[in-house]
Here is the input.
Amino acid sequence: MLNKDASAPARAEAESERLAGSSRQRWLVLAVVSGSLLLCGIDLTVLHVAVPSMSLDLQPSAAQLLWIVDVYSLALAALLVTCGTLGDRIGRRKMVLSGFFAFGLASAACAFSTSTVQLIAARAALGVAAAMIMASTVAIIRVVFTDDRERAFAIGVWTSAHSVGATIGPLLGGLVAEQWGWNAVFLVNIPVIVVILAVGLRVIPESKNPVPRRWDLASVVLSVTGLAGVVYALKQAGEHAGVNTVIVVTAVVGAALLYTFVRRQRRLAEPLLDFSLFAERRFSTATLCVIGCFGSYVALLFFLTQWLQQVGGYSPLRAGLALMPLAAANAVGAITAPWAANRWGNRWALTGSLSLFAIAFAAIAAVGDTAHYGLLLLPLLAAGYGAGIVMTLGADSIMSAAQPERSGEAAAIQETSFELGAGLGVAVLGTVLAVFYRTSLPSVPGLAPDQRAVAGESFSSAEEVMSHLPAPAAHAVLDAARQAYDHGFTAVAVIASIGLAGTAVMAAVLLRPRTTGEPT
Here is the structure.
């Protein structure tokens, strides 16, 4: 028994040495895992520009629309650490390849969904598959790339693949949706997944943790159901522009489950998520900066595309192209982040970038006119640049604040913070928009009370009401819906600006050095 246990690390080392001798295979492995992460990033944002046409087909309520958009990132965030622990036990190759297969099936299910409930379920399955993929890819890279410099480069490529995917998602979605409809934005995944799966079967090595952590099913159930309960209550409150007994009870139960989850993690010898890392002030502050920044960035991508299409009358392709300056500035910010940190230190670079992002959101709210895209261009460039710096330096601060022996746990929290930020950003700000849309929808003469109630649910519902009205009344409803959505988008921009400004103050205060001589 002792010989068998002792041979496990030796076998892993031998496998790493074998792969180190095959340069071509190493880079093929990197291409496979980075390509799969690119797809995961694309699916985070690809549906954004297709929402108007999808809403006309499926007629989701305001809360259902938010579920369609962010159930993917919420499922991914909730299961990322769980899938990583499970992959360590059963084998990372098995986990990743199973994730590829499940991602293809879930993409097909999304494309052929004929109801809102089906699409929400399929998007949740897509998030689960993405969690299976993302959880084990960085561990595979560490096994395959034994040279420190090569491994650093490979992890850099792997990290950027997800951000690039999220950035190009709206443009790809616009191109595809305009030519073939919203269903096709999911079908493009399938041939890519087939190629990735075929190559991955040949080149990805199997690896396991010789001493895997305990997989705690109770913790998984507590975290997933607790998060789902809180987010469900939030969305329902936005749809009804208020609370009722069901919403309050669901929120309280969800919060209690999350509290129990945290308490359980603190008691377990091998927790699913080690909350002791958050005792380090800079670690917890950097994590909150990433959640707030990436959540605001993804929400800006989503709500800006809806605003341009539904209020400004942009086509899906034109809306996708309108976001390219934001995406390009984000990439420049990520590239120049190390320079900013060297010049001003992480603390002030993060504070300044968060402040720039906040000012950009405020400027977007002040412009508030889709007919003047030229005036929006500078705020979009500032928002993208500031967000790029924050996401890069925030992620680096999370890793550098943790002790080297805990880098794996810190990396899991870092990835989770990005996905959780994306899901919560759309959920919270989407609830704000739904409330303002519903409460600011002006009265339309001649519109029956039941028709006004339907029109107040969402912009797509207003379009459905218009289809049953004569031309003058239909135009009046359209103008009213555009005015209400415009007010909602402005409210989202103002609240996001205030939140980012508060995060900037938090970074300035809490990222201070421990001692006078400690570098920032």
Summary: The chain has 19 helices and no strands.
